[in-house]
Structures are given as C-alpha cells and as structure tokens.
Amino acid sequence: MALVDEEERRRAERAHQVALFRYQLIREAADPALSPRQRGAMVRELAARTHTDPFGRQITVGRGTLDRWLRNWREGGFDALLPPTRQVTPRTPEEVLDLAAALKRENPSRTTAQVVRILTQHLGWGPSCRTVHRHLGRLDGCDVVQRPRHVGFERPQLIEFSRLADVLNWPRGMACVGPPEAS
C-alpha cells in the first residue's frame, strides 16, 4: 500500500509543478488591467517563444492552449491549471487478459488476432489486438513473435520489378522487344 501512496504523491507533485509552470506562463497576460488587444499581443508573443517545462524539455505552447489556461485560471484559480488525473486502473478486466494468456499458452502458434477473435466469440466482446499483444509481451512463457520491419526493395528486386512493370504496361499491339527508338 505504501508503494501506491508514494506513486500518488509523485503524481500530485508533478501535477503541481505543471500547474506552476502554466501559471508562470500566463501570469502577466492574466492581469485584469490589460485590454483585450494588449492581452492578445502578449499571448501571441508567448506562443511564438520556446519555454523550458518543469522537466527540462524545450516546448512551444500554442495560442489556443494559452487562452484556455487563462480562461481556466479566471474561472477556477490555480486548481483549474492542474492537469486532469489520469486513469491508472486497467480498463480491461484481469480475467479477460488471463484468458488471453491461457489461450496463447495452449497453442503458442496462435496470433494475437486469433486470440482476440476467440475472446470476442466467447465473451461477446474482446480487447484490442494491441492490448492483448502488450499484455502477452509482459508475461513469461508467452512468446510473442516480433515480426521484422519491412526493409523495402533491394536493388536487384527493384530492377526486376521495374522491368515487369514495363512489360505489363507496354502499349497493346507493339512487340515487347524493347523500348521504342527515338527518332
């Protein structure tokens, strides 16, 4: 339980840092003494610059985002600048993922798509292929085959393919001896 509390504390601290960063950006533009024209010019200038976020990355923030942060701050104060909390509990029931792992262990040659199809037929619904693939990849004893990325044509294959394309697209009625001679 202490691990969960520690994780929640870290998330809250990061959210507070993000809210402070947002407030630092909009602080001058939030001055009620500014006219809409002055505020617009200031927000456009802020949007044109790069900023260092609380985690050290260089970022740009769009004008629409700055306007939204200003609106949120006016309506709800500092707490409205906090990023929304993310759902960290899994959406797919653990029983469904266990069933997917059992199906894969039963027949290791099954693809992820086949496992999802069986789950859909059995349960009436199924998680996405990516969810099952990610889950199976984390488990021991469930070998998920990583397909090699497509490399593309190598030069000999490309030359042969272009010759085939020339022959197949040759005008009808002409002998396929070679390209027409230039006159």
Descriptive notes:
This protein is mostly helical and 183 residues long. The chain has seven helices and two strands; from the N terminus they run H-H-E-E-H-H-H-H-H. The protein has helices at 2-26, 36-48, 63-76, 94-106, 112-123, 129-138, 155-168, and strands spanning 50-52, 58-60. A hairpin with a 5-residue loop joins strand 1 (50-52) and strand 2 (58-60). The mean pLDDT is 82.
Task: Offer a quick outline of the entry.
With 183 residues, the chain is mainly alpha-helical.
Helix and strand layout, with pairings?
Elements (H helix, E strand, L loop, with lengths): L1 H25 L9 H13 L1 E3 L5 E3 L2 H14 L17 H13 L5 H12 L5 H10 L16 H14 L15
Keywords:
two-stranded antiparallel ribbon; mainly alpha; 3% strand; 183 residues; elongated; 55% helix; 2 strands; 7 helices
Order of helices and strands: HHEEHHHHH
| Class by alpha and beta content | mainly alpha
Query: How much strand content do the residues show?
Result: under 5%
Q: Which regions contain 5 or more consecutive residues with pLDDT less than 50?
A: none
Strand order in the sheet with the most strands? 1-2
Summarize the amount of helix as a percent range. 55-70%
Outline: elongated
Measured distance between first and last alpha carbons: 86 Å
Subunit arrangement of the protein: single chain
Mean pLDDT: 82
Number of strands: 2
Number of helices: 7
Q: What does the radius of gyration come to?
A: 29 Å
What's the main sheet like?
2 strands, antiparallel
